[in-house]
UniProtKB/TrEMBL annotation:
This is PAS domain S-box-containing protein. PROSITE patterns: PAC, PAS, SIGMA54_INTERACT_1, SIGMA54_INTERACT_3, SIGMA54_INTERACT_4. The keyword Nucleotide-binding applies. Residues 263-490 form the Sigma-54 factor interaction domain. Residues 76-126 form the PAC domain. It holds the Pfam family PAS. One of its GO terms (molecular function) is ATP binding. The lineage of its organism: Bacteria, Pseudomonadati, Thermodesulfobacteriota, Desulfobacteria, Desulfobacterales. Keywords: ATP-binding, Nucleotide-binding, Transcription, Transcription regulation. Gene3D superfamilies: 1.10.8.60, Homeodomain-like, P-loop containing nucleotide triphosphate hydrolases, PAS domain. One of its GO terms (biological process) is regulation of DNA-templated transcription. InterPro entries: AAA+_ATPase, AAA_lid_NorR, Homeodomain-like_sf, HTH_Fis, P-loop_NTPase, PAS, PAS-assoc_C, PAS-like_dom_sf. Residues 23-72 form the PAS domain.
Amino acid sequence: MGFETDNLPLFENSSDAIIVLQDGIIRNVNANAVKVLRYAAQELVDRPYGDFVHPDDVALVDSRYRKRMNHEPVPQVYPFRLITKDGDIVWFEIHAIEILWGGRPASLTFFNNITERVRAQEALQESEKVTRGILNAIPDTIIRIMESGRITTYKGPEGTMVKGKAPYAGSHLSDFLPREKFEEAMAAIGQALAHHTVQRFEFKWAEVRGTQWYEARIIALAGSEVLGILRNITERKRQERALTERLQHLETRVKQSHAMGTIIGRSKPMQEVLETILKASRTSAHVIVYGESGTGKELVSKAIHDLSDRAGGKFVPVNCAAIPEKLMESEFFGYKKGAFSGADRDKKGLLELADRGTLFMDELGEIDLNMQAKLLRAIEGGGFLPVGGREPVYPDIRIIAATNKNPEELVKRGRMREDFFYRISVIPVTLPPLRDRLEDLPFLIHHFLEKLGTGDQLPVIPSHVMSRLQAHHWPGNIRELQNVVHRYITMNRIDLPAPATHADLPPEPREKGTPRPLSEVLAEAEKAHILRTLEATRWKKARAAELLGLHRKTLFRKLKGYGIE
């Protein structure tokens, strides 16, 4: 059943390291075994093999050796470690066959050096360990998905359950996603594989811990597989929903009442203004408010501040036209004690007072070019130095500017810096004049009657007086209306200029007793009729042209000829 090694001519010449074991003792070694173990042959022979086996592997080798000698089932090949004479640890793969040595059973054992292979495996395992550590540190769920929708591998939070079962490899996307989201996922997989682009979509999973929102990113891999990265965005969705509900609440409050603060308006132009106020309040971008004098530019600016995240800070209004040019710098930047005669204490400037709040700059066009350059630097984050100061101040401010002039025209005329204008006018808000929103007139009048009236009973404005108010052009806008209502409450009369008639037109000079030419009389009558029509249509020229039966260009030509603007 065996053979003697003396009868094996290849024993010494084999490329493998070979030893003969009998009763746990090394009986013979070939040249390669001597070379591998770095011992002389006489140092190996007649010594227990356990002297050279790594201590952690002795029990394993002993067990396998005894089982083989007792003819029990044992793996033919297995790895273990030997220690060389130099103390190096070398990995071997062992293969043994039974032989006879001196007429008694022994084991002919072949050693194949697998140290490099083991090191490569250890490096791979370490790499996989690091990769697993990285993946486990990532809160995202990561799955590999076949083009068919079959999940091949899965990594996710421990204990995650979807619809009552864990999403392990072998499951299918259709097991977890509702039909419409499954179709969206399959479409994303197809797009990722076809175009090698990252596809994104959101979906809900019904888990044991409740319904969770996920964001999915689909990335194409080699072949027909994709990588799905699923990020739990439930908290983000909750915050977004809370923010949306807050904004909707504010919007509903604004739309259902006709006022935001003291802003009154149900007309379409004012509804557009209210929409813009809400949009502007959601950002910290600078705002510029356009409008004629008396249209409520400061009220609108205050509403934007109060609805924004800066409501906890100060709203600092300043009329730029009221500040002398020489005091501009000290007013905006402040000054330090002793900076000039009379500076007996430190004083914060307008920019510093508005830190983390809003600075409302009315009459923006009245700031000179030099001051515009300094303000621009401060607004852009470059800070400023108070007058007499050495330490720069870096305020966090939002600018809301207002003007009744055309800033673009000021830029063209060189009275406003272009970079200053564009830095300020990120979000424009245009307020309509009162004559373009006369449907708001009753609400505005009622508001001022409540605000300015005394006693429990509000004054009543007769219909003929209301008609006069409706027909007025309101050049002073809301401010003029407030004054008119105040006078009515105080003096019980309405002071408005009477509508223009032909009698109001100055007569042309002519010789006494000389009849006037018919063309002059007709021109006067035409002018008076056009003025009455314009008053009746609240100066809506297109509507007036329609009532007069004229083309708009014809009406505009006549208005220019009569000096009517």
